[in-house]
Amino acid sequence: MKIYNKKNFRLGIYFFVLAAGLLITGFLKEFKPRGLVMIAVCFIIGVCFLLRSLSQELSRKDLLDDMDERNRLIHLKSCSRANGITQVGSVILAGIISELVWQQMQI
Question: What are the residue ranges of helices labelled H in the chain?
Answer without folding.
Answer: 6-28, 33-54, 56-67, 69-106
